[in-house]
Amino acid sequence: xxxxxxxxxxxxxxxxxxxxxxxxxxxxxxxxxxxxxxxxxxxxxxxxxxxxxxxxxxxxxxxxxxxxxxxxxxxxxxxxxxxxxxxxxxxxxxxxxxxxxxxxxxxxxxxxxxxxxxxxxxxxxxxxxxxxxxxxxxxxxxxxxxxxxxxxxxxxxxxxxxxxxxxxxxxxxxxxxxxxxxxxxxxxxxxxxxxxxxxxxxxxxxxxxxxxxxxxxxxxxxxxxxxxxxxxxxxxxxxxxxxxxxxxxxxxxxxxxxxxxxxxxxxxxxxxxxxxxxxxxxxxxxxxxxxxxxxxxxxxxxxxxxxxxxxxxxxxxxxxxxxxxxxxxx
Length: 330
What we know:
Elements: H1 2-15, E1 28-32, H2 39-55, E2 59-63, H3 70-78, E3 85-89, H4 93-96, E4 109-117, E5 120-125, H5 133-142, E6 148-151, H6 157-166, E7 174-177, H7 181-189, E8 196-199, H8 200-209, E9 212-218, E10 248-254, H9 259-272, H10 276-284, E11 288-292, H11 294-315
Parallel strand pairs: 1-2, 1-3, 6-7
Antiparallel strand pairs: 3-10, 4-10, 4-11, 5-8, 5-9
């Protein structure tokens, strides 16, 4: 699967022909994998105006959540291979196979641009009784299954972080699924769940505003966006072997979209990723801008999938072995 995508990247690089004048002739549809207000949606809407300007046409943004990203991924893959429908996606499809969610991952698509990556935090409401990560873990261990964790379904960021933590300590929680980090965090603030692992981009503003508290960043060290929030390894040193780890955000199309259309989209988003408004938002939300295209993007996706799926396998969270799916151990 990855071999075929590598060949496609090579062919695109060799051809590098100017895009046909008729593309784009009309508006383009950008399908966001998660609901409004979540991390993926925030990144998509930040780059969308600059991408419209670079592409020379309107990009209609459609939120299509569900199935930990499987519904939107299938939707884009079922659309005509003409470049008029693309995916604003996150990391989730790279886990769909091992989680038994879907047989479509980014190896079946073409990465127009890996826009950036993020850092996750463990978030609670500001009025929560849990003042530190140790407080939360103590409560979980004292009351197995009683503490409620906001989730986005199998293969989502919260469940993946939960699986990694469970390899470092006892972590018997009840996961409550929502259609994206935005709805999940809203539910958490409403008292429906006790805590939620989430991308820092979805939580940073509310943490700074004092309506939410971050107990830890899922990173080996603190980050500039929330410098006073401790690293998760301060409490769980065993997490170090999985880090750095985090979500990523990108633009993807069907693998069989014509090469000239891929090149037009690639050029547009490479330009948009240098827009000052987009760069400022990414920095303020604690994200790292990558602006990665071509074979480099394909290699990044493969490595991320290897590291994460085998971590899930080793913690017992995977439903299907990565080996069965042809994913090599890193």
